[in-house]
Amino acid sequence: MPDQRPTFLLVHGAWHQSSCWAPLQAALAENGWRSDTVDLPSSGDQSTPNAGMYDDAVAIDEALQRVEGPVVIVAHSYGGIPVTQAAVGHPEISHLVYLAAYMPAEGESMYDIHGLPIPEELSGTFPLIDNPRKSLYGDLPDDAARVALDQLVEQSVRSFAQPVNRAAWRAVPSTYILCEQDQAILPPLQETMSSHASSVVRIQSGHSPFLFEPDRLATLLGKVVGG
Predict the structure, then answer these.
(1) How far apart are CA 156 and CA 28, in angstroms?
(2) Spatial distance between the Cα atoms of 136 and 185, rounded to a whole number of angstroms
(3) Rounded alpha-carbon distances, angstroms, from residue 145 to 20, 31, 173
(4) Could you tell me the end-to-end alpha-carbon distance of the chain, in angstroms, rounded to an integer?
(5) pTM above 0.90, yes or no
(6) Residue 143: what are its φ and ψ, rounded to 5°?
(7) Contact indicator for 52, 80 with CB cutoff of 8 Å
(8) Theoretical Cys-Cys bridge with 102: which of 25, 63, 80, 116, CB 3.0 to 4.6 Å?
(9) How many Cβ atoms from other residues are within 10 Å of residue 163's Cβ?
(10) Which CATH class is domain 7-224?
(11) CA-to-CA distance for 64 and 45, rounded, in angstroms?
(12) d(CA 165, CA 104)
């Protein structure tokens, strides 16, 4: 019989690219799991400097079409927004994992979730988060943090401003992994968003456990999907 273990589709957050998942992909492979990634056009793609959340959702949809068999989507941070939009109507998706991720309801953008007004001008890029060494990689050693910081890219304003008009978590089982030491998306906000999820798992980690403890995260993901 063919292996019915799902493939993990890993969706990165803002200012990142798919290369950030390399340590977790190696750990998943060590545990016998397949994984794939997608590069979101709103992050660092100079050929589409004004790409928005809907463009990211299209890229996720295209990535899903490349994967054979059941799929578990793991969305990190901003990646939760286009995943919420894109993962509707794909019967092969067996589970959604929101990893310290935005988990919007219909009509919500990242600006809305933070209670901020939508800017009139949506072109251009959004400034990098304050103190990224602390907020994104606070629990990483200095050498690893420098490598991660060097790989950060620009992020479009439009991606943060466009709201989802559908919510995949209403139909697909979901787990929210709440990072209790996160300095980028603070735990109280994660708690609020995680109320949408089917289940919640709390870990002692900052914003980027895929870099901080990829082996432990890979083991946790296997448990989440019943492996």
Answers:
(1) 30
(2) 9
(3) 12, 25, 33
(4) 17
(5) yes
(6) -60, -45
(7) no
(8) 80
(9) 19
(10) alpha beta
(11) 20
(12) 10
User: Could you list the pLDDT tens digit for every one of the 227 residues in the chain?
Assistant: 346 899 999 999 999 999 999 999 999 999 999 999 999 999 986 666 789 999 999 999 999 999 999 999 999 999 999 999 999 999 999 999 999 999 999 999 999 999 999 999 999 999 999 999 999 999 999 999 999 999 999 999 999 999 999 999 999 999 999 999 999 999 999 999 999 999 999 999 999 999 999 999 999 999 999 85
Confirm if 48 and 68 have CB atoms less than 8 A apart: no
Q: Is 223 helix (H, G, I), strand (E, B) or coil?
A: helix
Domain ranges of the chain: 7-224
- One-letter amino acid at 139 equals D
Task: Determine which helix (DSSP H) or strand (DSSP E) holds 96, and give its type and residue range.
Answer: strand 93-99
For residue 218, give Cα distances in angstroms to 13, 61, 197, 205, 225: 18, 24, 20, 14, 11
Where do we find the tokens 């403890």? 213
Asked if residue 35 lies in contact with residue 8, where contact means CB atoms within 8 angstroms, the answer is yes
